[in-house]
């Protein structure tokens, strides 16, 4: 089965370095398509139009730097991994970048480590997306359970209280009494209201995705 093609956005003002980077990735068997940009305007345009899976960015560029590119990325595609590929990046600055949220960094004279870092970054990004989806589903489930709890504690109790109260007014000694007819109609309305609420609870319960039991 052919691996899914990875869309890589490369921010690099040196074409030779960009070509070297692409050759290294191809040599390591990475299945990808790439777009190389070198200015802020083209980078911002590529984020929206190219929609990359991962970004590889030089740290120092004539018009702006890699960290500025990362900040821009966070506002547009916050879940996309961002790796700095630099020729000169001190250890202290590299640590600061990682603490700031940048996924990873690679020195240009150690490109052999780039492919494994890309694969790891994409795997971690996928896991984060799955977790985010699962968390969102849990929030939805919780909201549905709250709705059901409200229906059970309020909308069920009201017609039940009416029914109990009406039974207390029923004239059992004279079943044909006129008041019994009125009570019967009110009982019917309360039972119908209760039935509608039960149906609504069942509907909301059916919308909850309970975890499957593992065999």
Automatic annotation (TrEMBL):
InterPro entries given in the database record: Bact_response_regulator, CheY-like_superfamily, Sig_transdc_resp-reg_receiver
Residues in coiled coil: none
SMART domains: REC (SM00448)
Keyword Protease carried by entry: no
Keywords carried by this UniProt record: Phosphoprotein
Keyword Transcription regulation carried by entry: no
Modified residues (4-aspartylphosphate): 58
Pfam families noted in UniProt: Response_reg
Response regulatory domain mapped to chain residues: 7-123
One of the GO biological process terms: phosphorelay signal transduction system
PROSITE patterns listed in its UniProt record: RESPONSE_REGULATORY (PS50110)
CDD domains referenced in this protein's UniProt entry, alphabetically: REC
Protein name per its UniProtKB record: Response regulator receiver domain-containing protein
Organism: Mucilaginibacter gracilis
